[in-house]
Specification:
The structure holds 2 protein chains of 2 kinds. Chain A folds into 2 domains: 41 residues; 235 residues, MetI-like (MetI-like fold). Helices cover 76% and strands 0% of the residues of chain A. The longest helix of chain A has 38 residues. Chain A is built from 11 helices and no strands. By secondary structure, chain B is an alpha/beta fold. Chain B has a single domain, classed as Rossmann fold. Helices cover 38% and strands 24% of the residues of chain B. In chain B, helix 4 packs across helix 5. The longest helix of chain B has 14 residues. Chain B is globular. Classes of the chains: A mainly alpha, B alpha/beta. The interface between A and B is medium-sized, with 23 and 28 residues.
Chain lengths: 285, 274
Amino acid sequence: MNNSQINQIKDKAFQYFGIFCTLIGIVLLVIFIGSILIDGLGRIDWNFLTSLPSRKAEKAGILTAWSGSLWIFGLTAIFAIPLGVSAGVYLEEYGKKNWFSNLLEINISNLAGVPSVIYGILGLEIFVRTFKFGGSLLAGSFTLALLILPIIIVATREAVKAVPHSIREAAYGMGASKWQTTYTQVLPAAGGGISTGIILALSRAIGETAPLIIIGALAYVPFVPTSPLDEFTVLPMQIFNWTSRPDHAFVVNAAAGIILLLGITFLLNGIAVYFRNKWQKKVKW
Amino acid sequence: MENTSQKNINNEDQSMSQDTTEKSKVILESKKANVYYGDMHAIKNVNIKMRENSVTAFIGPSGCGKSTFLRTFNRMNDYIDIFRKEGEFYINGKEIYQKDVKVEELRKTVGMVFQKPNPFPKSIYENVAFGLRIQGIKNKSVLDEAVEKSLKQAAIWDEVKDNLKKSALALSGGQQQRICIARALAVEPKVLLMDEPASALDPISTAKIEELIYQLKENYTIVIVTHNMQQAGRVSDRTAFFYIGELIEFGKTKNIFTNPKEELTERYITGRFG
């Protein structure tokens, strides 16, 4: 066997290995979604979506959980997006590049990798106890906003960095101030990348359970939250609660809940991706 | 200042030259200008005067500092952290690096056109209206008028008048560059700095830009950096030859090209180095 034959074999081997690796992920996902659908799809009906939780599995609904999730999603977005985008723009456009900004950059990247439980403890201390928000939607969304802030900041910086320098020069050359340049040119051009980061970050927030457990969100909430200071539960917590029950009927409920959570996540992502693509089509160079 | 222009008027009358720039007043001036990027001495002790309604060409080999020098006149180098300057730079008799000079105001007086066409990813109309919009002008008829006037001045109105809503990025490179010129003209600057405005364009577009520069001279003072010696010869009244940060020779373009005083200039113009 000569050298080129060996190379060909290596080439083929890697190709099959790659296919195998890709299939593992896809097959597992198909099995997972398939079994969930088989278990839970029959359980989803109007009653399930609009009923309050109950001790009896067949009566229990998921209204409080999905409305809580939507509240958390909305509030977290309101808090995290302006903070994260502003911080990212500041660091990239305004901040001087020195050892301090380097330190800041490393720390922000590291924060993105801190386990979410730690954020829960932070939220418990700051929002629940110091600010006395209790186990409310406000405390929960502040905590999740902190959790996803690093992701949004990093994504914003990357997107802003990718805007061609010539666009900034053009605006400065016309007598635009830094803010005018940022607001009228850089931000719109970076919008696609920034919104991708926001989508990823919010998807993560809506699936989080651990920090919410720590700040004291309840698994059993017999009412729909009507203000940010209300107590709440979210889909992942409701699912977790149901799966830990011994009665099989609750496991079916959990499967139905998972389908709903996946559905909401896909839907929100879909909407966000739609708007991002529309946006990106306008800014092409 | 006054003395030199007095002296030149006589020459002017005798030679019956088309070049009337000798009479007009000095708009751009540098005194003992030095520019540093960190340790690099990019511009070395340059004194130059450029007159109203004239076209001055900066020529010289790559890295000789001509773009750097051009950019000091609208303070575009301010954003470079390691940039440092010494000496004085005047626009219309005003030193532009003084503390009371607002750089945004300066750039409304001194417009700039860049090497690579850089229209904003917006409509043609919005590109040209940008300079007025950031000054807070919202009145639609004022904007409409300014956009039309600028596009006409930039000799592109006829090509785009039916498509003002179209993205400027959908135009050809040459058209984009003329949109950029229109954009710069819309705020009615006194001076137009052009940093190799035709170097990224095809010959036909280049000819259009050159024709345009010739027309714009009536109302604006133009400084153009170019690598193209024929271009400098065609469009400029005066030419400045830079070499490694020094201004080697500055004079009437026809003199520089036909009868350079410095050997370095002659060698560069005849293509023996560069």
